[in-house]
């Protein structure tokens, strides 16, 4: 733009999406190092940051690594500085302004964030100033704020226990509740450094003991005093240090709990018939992609008792099955169906019946001691069957461990809590 006498009134310096695939080799979204924006005036924008809807929703983790900027602005308007839109996709987005070039004063380092309570819960009350540009929420609150003298980081927490739907973090006298991200089965947050007491709760607001929580942290900020994996203290149900007045009795030793894994992704799938020779194959039902676009779904022809089936490759212990309906229309077709668990010969072991239909997704708990090789979704009527995604969650554990006196040889085999005998499980 340097030297232009009459700038394009709607020019954009950099237009970039901030969300990335979690499997990307480089997860960093955007880094600007020693970049100068000159003469951005008359409604032009230095950066247009947007959420790329072309990326399937099942394969993005929000913003990926936060944006880092070491920049300067020369002869440019204040409202040409970057900001995030007010939609739901931007709830956890932020930008670290290393040089202060995007700050209100143009000199103080800090962070541009979404101006919402979940982003500021553990920040000093005077740390953030709402930006006068970038739009407002329906209540008139500005969508963006600039925060200084703080150091924040993007964090994901996987609870390790299926019942956990709420996570309460406490630091000193401040507590804040974060709720499970249904799409990714994890808790997302943006936090400054410090020590946090972490407690999980179920849908009835009863505390549940964490299984094996996993804390993932994103790009290390340039500032100091940020959160890391050691910032969190979880309630893990450790034994009391002093003896009880009377001994407790147990018929079996206590077993550790490990997080169930997705047993179905990428495994061989089939369906009763295909809607098209080129579209909506059975393999789309367990490819890991949960999208708003129907091209990623399965679709059978119209046939009585239509079904879709996945082969887990052998008998596996199943904890639950989660099913996503197609997103665009006709959700009523996925109704009045069975989730069936089949043995190695294709004979039914047990099943779960679903009455009615659901718009998005639903999880079905298999129950205790369910070992199956195949999981089949089967309608009871004559509609076509279509699915966006099916996740069969459980453990790669042999049913031989159920035999009387069998012992577990490693922690993976202890996952189900079904092992007996003297073993490392207790």
Task: Pick out its properties.
426 residues, mainly beta, six-stranded mixed beta sheet, 1 helix, 26 strands, 1% helix, globular, disordered N terminus, disordered C terminus
Number of strands: 26
Overall pLDDT score: 80
From the helix content, strand content and strand pairing, which structural class follows?
Answer: mainly beta
Rg for CA atoms? 26 Å
Q: Could you list the spans in which at least 5 consecutive residues all have pLDDT below 50?
A: 1-7, 21-26, 56-61, 238-257, 402-426
Quote the beta fraction: 35-45%
What is the first-to-last residue Cα distance? 68 Å
What profile does the largest beta sheet have? 8 strands, antiparallel
Secondary-structure element series: EEEEEEHEEEEEEEEEEEEEEEEEEEE
Number of DSSP helices?
1
Helix content: under 10%
Shape: globular
């Amino acid at each position: 733009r340097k030297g232009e006498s009459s700038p394009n009134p709607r020019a954009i310096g950099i237009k970039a999406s901030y969300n990335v695939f979690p499997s990307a080799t480089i997860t960093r979204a955007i880094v600007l190092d020693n970049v100068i924006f000159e003469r951005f005036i008359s409604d032009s924008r230095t950066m247009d940051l947007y959420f790329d809807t072309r990326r399937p929703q099942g394969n993005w983790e929000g913003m990926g690594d936060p944006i880092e900027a070491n920049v300067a602005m020369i002869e440019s308007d204040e409202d040409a500085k970057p900001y995030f839109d007010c939609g739901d996709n931007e709830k956890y987005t932020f930008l670290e302004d290393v040089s202060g070039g995007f700050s209100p004063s143009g000199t103080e380092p800090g962070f541009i964030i979404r101006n919402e309570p979940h982003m500021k819960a553990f920040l000093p009350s005077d740390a953030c100033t709402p930006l006068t540009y970038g739009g407002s929420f329906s209540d008139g609150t500005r969508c963006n704020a600039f925060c200084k003298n703080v150091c924040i980081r993007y964090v994901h927490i996987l609870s390790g226990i299926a019942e956990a739907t709420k996570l309460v973090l406490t630091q000193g006298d401040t507590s804040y509740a974060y709720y499970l991200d249904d799409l990714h089965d994890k808790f997302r947050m943006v936090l400054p450094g410090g020590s946090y007491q972490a407690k999980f709760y179920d849908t009835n607001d009863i505390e549940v003991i964490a299984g094996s929580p996993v804390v993932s942290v994103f790009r290390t900020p340039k500032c100091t005093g940020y959160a890391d994996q050691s910032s969190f203290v979880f309630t893990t149900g450790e034994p009391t240090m002093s003896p009880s007045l009377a001994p407790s009795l147990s018929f079996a030793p206590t077993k550790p709990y490990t997080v169930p894994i997705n047993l179905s992704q990428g495994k061989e799938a089939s369906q009763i018939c295909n809607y098209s020779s080129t579209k909506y194959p059975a393999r789309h039902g367990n490819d890991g992609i949960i999208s708003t676009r129907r091209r990623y779904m399965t679709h059978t022809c119209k046939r009585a008792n239509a079904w879709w089936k996945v082969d887990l490759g052998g008998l596996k212990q199943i904890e639950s099955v989660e099913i996503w309906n197609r997103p665009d229309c006709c959700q009523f077709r996925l109704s009045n169906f069975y989730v069936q668990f089949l043995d190695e010969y294709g004979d039914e072991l047990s099943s779960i019946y679903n009455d009615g239909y659901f718009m998005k997704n639903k999880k079905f708990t298999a129950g205790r001691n369910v070992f199956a090789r195949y999981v089949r979704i089967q309608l009871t009527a004559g509609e076509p069957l279509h699915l966006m995604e099916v996740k069969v969650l459980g453990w790669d554990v042999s049913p031989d461990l159920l035999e009387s006196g069998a012992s577990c040889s490693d922690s993976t085999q202890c996952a189900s809590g079904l092992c007996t005998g003297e073993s490392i499980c207790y």
